[in-house]
Amino acid sequence: MPMSCPRLPWFRCRPRRHGTLPARHALRGRVRPLGLVVAVVLLCAVAAAVWWWRGQAARQAAAPVAAGTGAGAGGPGARRAPGAQVQPISADPVRRQDVRVLVHAIGTVAARNTAVVRAKADGELKAIRFKEGDMVRAGQLLAEIDPRNYQAALAQAQGALARDRALLRNAQLDLQRYQDLLAQDSIARQQVDTQAALVRQTQGTVQTDQAQVDAARLQLSYTRVTAPISGRLGLRQADLGNVVRAADTTGIVTITQVRPIHALFSIPEASLPRVVARLRAGAAMPVELWDRDQKTLLATGRLETVDNAIDTATGTIKAKATFANTDGSLFPNQFANVRLQVDTLPGVLTVPTTAVQRGTQGTYVYAVKDDGTVSLRKVLLGTTDGDRISVQGALQEGERVVTDGADRLREGAQVAVIAPDAAARADQAVQASAQGPRGGRRNLPPELAAKVQAMSPEERRAFFRQMRERQQQGAAPGGPGAPGTPAAAPAPGGTAAPAAAPATAPAGSPAAAPAAPAAR
């Protein structure tokens, strides 16, 4: 009887015969490669099925979007696809208004006057009477230099003047006596003439002494450093206790006159005749300064003058404008975008710059008609003034032109006018409902719920109302819920509801789900 080994495989317990393996072990060795091949084939089949299922879901979700942005959209001359959806757009009316003819330039703010306050007398800086950045008046005391040397020099000059004045007085008295004696014929005339010359010599000495006194007094006044002009002080260049000299180039502080202030910029040579004609006529030419992003108006002033020569390298000429700058917001060397108004076009038709489209047919706009469709109108562009531009074409005052969403339109497309921000939010809601993860019948996916929460109450109600309608009517073939049905319906108040989710979505997807509890 063969031995039994319950803890070991059967082929290890059976004795070998003639040095060969058991028959069952040999069969297992032949079957193992076949099992691996079958497993690999099954895995590939599962992966292909998953890939096909995801592709089908993506194509079903993208079908309504393709219906609105495919061959039926995309500009002038495009063919209309069957069942194309109503496109949400924003519109603005055509207006008749005065348009400014502007010359745009890049300019630099410049101070009206700039003065470097330097010491006119050598000496130690004993006191500083200003604060950096302050506004000062002309003649205001800024600093004091040690005056003792200059006080001594003034006293010395005054002493010499007093001495020579006494000598002059004595010489004049002697001359008077000599003249009396000459009248009595007691002295010679030569002696009188000599005394008269001495008097004139002493008078010259007194005048020299007086000039020295004035010079010493002037040097003493230089020890009090005052502001030469009114303006804003810069940073201090000398500290208390420093020895300043008249030959120093840095000075003590710099003053810039900023009220009023200038702006320097260059205008094209082609605009020069019109500008010069307005200047000669004495007409005021307004100038605006805008920040670097051209979003904030910095100041408004007027053109003062233009240069006397054109720069041949650039074909421009320099111009100077003046600004009151009462609030002190403009600083020298500040960058600014300049808008010079050279003329005004009265009563021309204007449209928003965002309404102008460009294509193979030239420039055009989409006008919204009373039946809710759009019509392509070719226009000729004129002058741009801010966010509007003057146009010439088949447009009437009061007509509405498309300002947002024109890239999805074509001639005769159905549109629904909504607020500019509502159109963007509606598109986001459509994408979220078509591409978001599948949720339950009473809950929306988190990303879609967040977008719906960001809508206005009217848009939210219209969105859920249309979802309910599509859930109820989606099963009817060719009905309103069929593919290609307009995805946007007018909401209460005249605006259009956000585009709804596709009606062909699976029953468990967000597009087929009923309204959330908050919308019931």
From TrEMBL:
Residues 67-90, 468-520 are annotated as: Disordered. The keyword Transmembrane helix applies. Residues 348-417 form the YknX-like C-terminal permuted SH3-like domain. InterPro entries: MdtA-like_b-barrel, MdtA-like_BSH, MdtA-like_HH, RND_pump_MFP, YknX-like_C. Residues 260-344 form the Multidrug resistance protein MdtA-like beta-barrel domain. Residues 484-520 have a biased composition (Low complexity). GO terms for molecular function: efflux transmembrane transporter activity. Residues 154-223 form the Multidrug resistance protein MdtA-like alpha-helical hairpin domain. The chain crosses the membrane at residues 34-53. GO terms for cellular component: efflux pump complex. It holds the Pfam family YknX_C. Keywords: Cell inner membrane, Cell membrane, Membrane, Transmembrane, Transmembrane helix. It is found in: Cell membrane. Its main location: membrane. Residues 113-256 form the Multidrug resistance protein MdtA-like barrel-sandwich hybrid domain. SUPFAM superfamilies: HlyD-like secretion proteins. PANTHER family: MULTIDRUG RESISTANCE PROTEIN MDTA. Belongs to the membrane fusion protein (MFP) (TC 8.A.1) family. This is Multidrug efflux system membrane fusion protein.
